[in-house]
User: Fold Pyrophosphate--fructose 6-phosphate 1-phosphotransferase from Streptomyces plicatus.
Amino acid sequence: MKVGILTGGGDCPGLNAVIRAVVRKGVQEYGYGFVGFRDGWRGPLEGDTVPLDIPAVRGILPRGGTVLGSSRTNPLQHEHGIRRIRENLAKLGVEALITIGGEDTLGVATRLADEYGVPCVGVPKTIDNDLSATDYTFGFDTAVSIATEAIDRLHTTAESHMRVLVVEVMGRHAGWIALHSGLAGGANVILIPEQRFDTEQVCAWVTSRFRASYAPIVVVAEGAMPRDGDMVLKDETLDSYGHVRLSGVGEWLAKEIEKRTGKEARTTVLGHVQRGGTPSAFDRWLATRFGLHAVDCVRNGDFGKMVALRGTDIVRVPIAEATARLKTVDPKLYEEVGVFFG
Amino acid sequence: MKVGILTGGGDCPGLNAVIRAVVRKGVQEYGYGFVGFRDGWRGPLEGDTVPLDIPAVRGILPRGGTVLGSSRTNPLQHEHGIRRIRENLAKLGVEALITIGGEDTLGVATRLADEYGVPCVGVPKTIDNDLSATDYTFGFDTAVSIATEAIDRLHTTAESHMRVLVVEVMGRHAGWIALHSGLAGGANVILIPEQRFDTEQVCAWVTSRFRASYAPIVVVAEGAMPRDGDMVLKDETLDSYGHVRLSGVGEWLAKEIEKRTGKEARTTVLGHVQRGGTPSAFDRWLATRFGLHAVDCVRNGDFGKMVALRGTDIVRVPIAEATARLKTVDPKLYEEVGVFFG
Amino acid sequence: MKVGILTGGGDCPGLNAVIRAVVRKGVQEYGYGFVGFRDGWRGPLEGDTVPLDIPAVRGILPRGGTVLGSSRTNPLQHEHGIRRIRENLAKLGVEALITIGGEDTLGVATRLADEYGVPCVGVPKTIDNDLSATDYTFGFDTAVSIATEAIDRLHTTAESHMRVLVVEVMGRHAGWIALHSGLAGGANVILIPEQRFDTEQVCAWVTSRFRASYAPIVVVAEGAMPRDGDMVLKDETLDSYGHVRLSGVGEWLAKEIEKRTGKEARTTVLGHVQRGGTPSAFDRWLATRFGLHAVDCVRNGDFGKMVALRGTDIVRVPIAEATARLKTVDPKLYEEVGVFFG
Amino acid sequence: MKVGILTGGGDCPGLNAVIRAVVRKGVQEYGYGFVGFRDGWRGPLEGDTVPLDIPAVRGILPRGGTVLGSSRTNPLQHEHGIRRIRENLAKLGVEALITIGGEDTLGVATRLADEYGVPCVGVPKTIDNDLSATDYTFGFDTAVSIATEAIDRLHTTAESHMRVLVVEVMGRHAGWIALHSGLAGGANVILIPEQRFDTEQVCAWVTSRFRASYAPIVVVAEGAMPRDGDMVLKDETLDSYGHVRLSGVGEWLAKEIEKRTGKEARTTVLGHVQRGGTPSAFDRWLATRFGLHAVDCVRNGDFGKMVALRGTDIVRVPIAEATARLKTVDPKLYEEVGVFFG
Assistant:
């Protein structure tokens, strides 16, 4: 049996660990052959492949990014896109497809599976951890670790100069990275896209922190928005996803804090460093297990499914269902964490 | 209300995060007062306390170890130990006790609660992750991260010299650290206490790895034992828990591999570095949430319970039940990982 | 004898290591008493002090920032500033001053020493490594390490998406951080303030890198400027020194590269994370030795001097001379490194 | 012109950076061809080579170890060893040799150059930093960083349990790693091979540290020896250099401390992790500059020389002279650091 693999969307630490696990188990246990498609859906669309055997996956476990390359190519936006994919798969003798990606990438897989009968297995990938069907996605732990380490470092600068430091982290629609790294980093304010923030309240927390002779760290997700909606949009800025970004909320907030509290404030936008480099041990473990279970899905003919983490188990869920709903931060959890604000 | 806190057993990254969370929430939301007991059960046994208020927990989140100190003092082994504890608690006006510790520490809490009606709440702590009631314990992720980083480093030495490197990691009764760090570090053999290993099989994996022109890394838990039971015990060695250790299995294995395969082999015993230093972001998150929920147990009068992680939720389980059974590595999981051996 | 200590200017990893070494040696070997002044020159100007004895410096070696606080207060800009300092020193019985800082801070020390006979010893501090009298300043190695780690991480993102990544690092007047981290991180282009860059040449290197099937990393010091001077200035931006910044050169360059090469480009501005957090082992060593030798200067009555590193030796140079000339990157060294461009 | 490269002796972070720099500059600027010899002197002895061009050195900068492999093969111990090397070099058309190694490896190069006229250029390599001609060798900073990080971690364990922690680091003949990491890690005692230690004095420091309510960290170089020479040798132990080791001084010392002070003591032997993995930014910089200057030596026909660091300059020194004398820790420097003992 010949199985195709592709990685789509933004890169994410752990992609290579998935690829390696799929190939190792597929070749050794099931005798499969593999075809790597380049740059997400562009690969099968244009028939652009790389050989993928055991030597090809040696040494890639600790490497960030994806040896297959990635892109945001959406075959649904190309004329006869799906037909061309089917033809290319047929030409290459590829009988099943393992697609590693987020909502968009897996959405195409659903269409391929549902409408054209292409046997697909999904592996969830989003650094933002906002897929509802799985407890965690790989890459998230690495991003949180990097952001936490940055916040640890910024504390000393904040305190030496008695300044406010605003740290803008990734998270356009969900505040998971902000919430976890803010908590782990001992931030004094954490702002997430799920709940519009009250700039006055933020300033009150900042002021109360100074009153206790400490300098405040404010962690803000890039998608967070003020309630008192006078944020001036900064046009032409692309976010870390390559989309036009609503604003530079970190910079905006630092200026507002300076204006309203009279304290010096600085912004740091962590940006791409959050998604690059070697995956954390947790992400290597999760990504590897996702890969092992994905190839088992193929083996069992269990298509249209996505692997997911539940507790410490890897389970299978329908792809369509898994990508239907964004997993946002529960207001109760946000409130729980709120005890550390101010 | 006045609440006592103690940390018992081996130190573990995340203990301070628990203490901080308990105190922050307890003082701010519930108006509690806190008393820190020094060095585990020695504190209440001897009435040795430290003041514990919000200033006392400032800045401790990222610090490893425990500001309260720890010990293996077991009041059950002291004459009238339990009675002395009750008297000291009464004298100090302590109405509830939050005990952070492993099997032994929580076992005493169970006795105190069951037999003497002392209201106790437990927070599980074991770097080995071998408590059955919780998906993970804090400290484990840090230990796995440190071990994985060490294995990453050892690969280059192994390959430059075409040597076998045997890495001995913590885990006397359960192989979780070996399994996770071995998988994440791309080890070629992982040996755990749950399953006696066949030295011939290990040597076969080693040899096959060299045949593929790569140098093998063997990760072995300190409690792993050979099936072909001729391991010479190294007397008088203490393990990282302060107990007499069965053997120096890493050193023994390296010598056997040299003898049987003719290849050079070296051992590295990671030792105490696995349990020291700043907790990982994951462990800070988990430990903080355990602390927040432990103080909620006190608030709800829900005693005799231990907080535990299930998926992404913090739940409450009876302490007695939680410590009854060691959580060992499931043979199926070990087999799943075995695809990477050799 | 009573000795005052202050830290001025931007914070820098290693400041606490200097303070600890001064106090440890001064108290233990010479029996000195110490007075810490808060927030740079603001401390002696306003008589704002902190007690500084051995317990006060325990545990501060690995901590970034400065326990004394810092500021950019310049007493020369305050009416009777110098006189007020002399009066406050006299009132406190402070007979000598150890000033840890950059050009500005040490400049004041020179004035104090030369014009008013206040016995001063200087310890050089600049994260930018641009003081001519010393081989290296502490903090620089930490900044380079953090920037290098970030560049390591960005490589995988660049290659997964075949994008240009522009990394803006600190360095307003000197390109040391860019040069060292760019070389260590395997950057394909490094741009420094010492030499205006030719945007066309940068684009040619970028294009040639893509031709070799690799994605380019461009490291640019914040003070670098294009030769073809059409860079649009971004007003109101403060650089990491708290001064108005000439431009957001990283963002500007990424846009130019996109426009001229047709390739996607993204910017990451590392910002404050470069100067915060625990110092590297090298910086702890250097800062500690600076501290030990600074207190020896006091002991020897050798005032008006600054400690400096020459090879592996700590030497003494006149403060005035030391701060007279900026140490910029030698064109020959820049050319030597240029072999890796493109 | 065709140039051979080999790496001999123990592996060391930075070897690949040297190789890459030599090849990049040699090919691009001088049009040289390169031949890589496998496993140190074994390569030219047996004519075992690997192709070495620009694609072969891509991506190796951040990788520890050596892509050429290493060994301790000494051609002087093989019959007609030198003659066979000359014949193999002639057969391959190799006109000059760049040898990267320590005393032993460079010693052979000297013989080859002096007695047989083989044009050799040396690049110093010793993780121990004990070559007299150069301020620093690459690999040393990485080893010190890893050891310092380990010591940082061990502090929390020591203090949580009020135990002595003895950390054994590399350094058979010179105490540089112990001295630098011990100082940077805030150790309370540092023991080096250059000066036999007085166990009673060590115990006095340990006791005094406990008296100040802190737990002591003792850093000991593997080659350190007690003055009161009753150390029981542990036979058959190999040190990290593959030689029979005199003792397990760390373990011995921990037992003595327990016996004499009555305090619990534990040992951690850092071992191979000190020499593996990605080089620090400093080592990448140094190793790269060594490589660039080594190929310049070839270009200038300046043979029999070794590149060396003096301050911030790379200079050339006669190989023979460079390896004649071990660079040990100056007693004055050791005394300077001694202010932190106890």
